[in-house]
Amino acid sequence: MKTILSRVVLSAAMLVGGSVLAMAADKEVHIYNWSDYIDPTILEDFTKQTGIKVVYDVYDSNEMVETKMLAGGSGYDIVVPTDRNMQRLIQAGVFQPLDKSKIPNLQYAWPEIYKRLETYDPGNQYAVNYMWGTTGIGYNKKLIADRMADAPVNSMDMIFKPEVAAKFADCGIYVLDSADDVMPAALNYLGLPPDSKETADLEKAAALIESVRPYIRKFHSSEFIEALANGDACIAFGFSGDILQARDRAAEAKNGVEIAYSIPKEGALLWMDSMVVPKDAPNADAAFAFINYIQTPQVIAKATDYVNYPNGNLESQKYVNPDILKDTSIYPDPTTLSHLYTTTPNDPKVQRVLTRLWTKVKTGS
């Protein structure tokens, strides 16, 4: 869902007083985050209010984050890994506990989301949620209706039921190239625990995906965004925000393509990207100042409006664009939210099995 951007440095000389944010004007905060994942004016406004320069680097995979963090000496004050990767890094001891006295805006934490976050950060000691989302079905309304008037667009039948998937093979089915996201969906569809580590369960999930492999045009990272937006794909299984980005691009292009996103009725993976502070952060105080700033309800609402993802700040919902807040594909209703599941990291043995099965699924051999 990301494309690598060049390094951006935003700075300002103004220093504004304040208990948590009052810091020397020559301080910097170095942030490592996904690209296209924050409104640049948020960084500019933070600098104006604090005098702290923001040095903002971006990445396109969690593996890049893990490599840098495990090597140490990254120079970053804040990184934003995704749940399971973050948990592995917490267990490796590379992050420092939050100084919550410097993050008073944690008072606005959304209990339901932070309860889920505890799956990866027991006791919520290290991480502050930035954004979260789901992994589900994006589809071209017209292309689907033309091929199947009663298509089950709210179900993983669209991808996992061979007689249904076959109807859309000609217009393009794209599936996320991520075993960590697709295999749990297959397990869940089969009525098995989505976080199962049992080889027999994983083999059943792989067999399910193999049964529809002839109808999948491509296993993708983010290429499907343009494919959906311009009408070259009819279905994509991927991250909610990416699919909504495709929807918005199509609308802006006025090309007649109408994209929708569905959270499968069977349930979906709830993923989380959270801010953590490396143990060797050069400027931890600046890190906590930035985390507190972005957790200001109006500020994190602005971030949500920019990226089309929900955030873990409950108070911010008062300020989120009403069209986004009422869109249940972004902010699920309570019943749907209760059906979302989380998964945990695999040990090396399970990961080897998963990698072998996923390679077999993709290559068909």
From TrEMBL:
**Which key words tag this protein in UniProt?**
Periplasm, Signal, Transport
Listed SUPFAM superfamilies: Periplasmic binding protein-like II
Q: Which domain of life is it from?
A: Bacteria
Family the UniProt entry places it in = Belongs to the bacterial solute-binding protein PotD/PotF family.
Give the function comment from the record. Required for the activity of the bacterial periplasmic transport system of putrescine.
Which protein are we looking at? Putrescine-binding periplasmic protein
**Originating organism:** Kaistia dalseonensis
PANTHER family (alphabetical): NORSPERMIDINE SENSOR (PTHR30222:SF12), SPERMIDINE/PUTRESCINE-BINDING PERIPLASMIC PROTEIN (PTHR30222)
- Which residues are the signal sequence here? 1-24
Is Signal set as a keyword in this record?
Answer: yes
List localization entries.
Periplasm
Asked if Transport is a keyword of the record, the answer is: yes
Q: Which InterPro entries match?
A: SBP, Sperm_putr-bd
